[in-house]
Write a structure and sequence with these properties.
By secondary structure, the chain is mainly beta. It has 3 domains: 30 residues; 112 residues, Alpha-Beta Complex (Outer Surface Protein A, domain 3), CATH 3.90.930; 61 residues, Histone H3 K4-specific methyltransferase SET7/9 N-terminal domain (Single Sheet). It is 14% helix and 55% strand. The relative contact order is 0.05.
Length: 213
């Protein structure tokens, strides 16, 4: 009698454990597209790794962060939104996971510093924006030397632009007017002497003169 009682009790306990485990699996399967109470998975890769996710902060003002990953789990993109518009620091990454681009947005418009990087990590482009208007744009070689320094006026090329080689020597210099080359452009030898002159009128070459030094 006692043996039968303890055997029945063990069977009941095993059944109870199975029920608890089954309930856990059921709840897990129902919530497989959730990481926690604020993050949900939007899509997955063929290997079942996360492709896209959305982290919700406030449903009232549409504030959330969108993230995209490659199939190896490396982050590829981060986009913060508010009122359904890009707002904050947008991040883009190369396939390997290193930073490709950083851009600051204010309610859908570029506003503030933006930077782009070579795949090896060095700074490639640095730009400043004021509500989608480009204030200045600089490009760099991998060694950090400027490729070009072009100030912009109200988002347009309307000033003198200078271009350099990797050692910082001036290669050419000239003027832009309304985004087009205009006036005299000078080209230099590596020793700093003038190599040639070119004259433009609203983007069209008017005259080219090679100089003998």
């Amino acid at each position: 009698m006692c043996t039968h009682f303890w055997t029945s009790r063990r069977m009941f306990q095993n059944f109870e454990r199975l029920m608890i485990y089954g309930t856990f699996l059921l709840l897990s399967s129902c919530s497989e597209n959730r990481i926690d109470s604020t993050v949900r998975i939007l899509s997955r890769h063929a290997n079942d790794s996360i492709m896209e996710s959305q982290e919700l902060f406030s449903s009232e003002d549409g504030k959330y962060i969108y993230r995209k990953y490659n199939e190896n789990g490396k982050l590829q993109k981060v986009e913060p939104y508010e009122n359904m518009l890009l707002h904050g620091l947008k991040e883009e990454y190369y396939y390997a996971g290193n930073v490709k681009k950083l851009e600051t947005y204010s309610f859908g418009k570029k506003n503030g510093m933006s930077k782009a990087f070579y795949g090896s990590g060095e700074l490639l482009i640095e730009a400043m924006y004021n509500m989608d208007t480009t204030m200045y744009l600089k490009k760099f070689y991998k060694n950090g030397q400027l490729i070009s320094d072009i100030p912009l006026i109200k988002g347009k090329l309307d000033s003198t632009a200078t271009y350099y080689d990797e050692k910082g020597r001036v290669l050419k210099k000239g003027f832009f007017k309304n985004n087009k080359k205009h006036g005299r452009w000078v080209y230099y030898n590596l020793d700093g002497t003038t190599y040639a002159e070119e004259y433009y009128n609203n983007g069209k070459v008017q005259n080219f003169k090679k100089l003998n030094n």
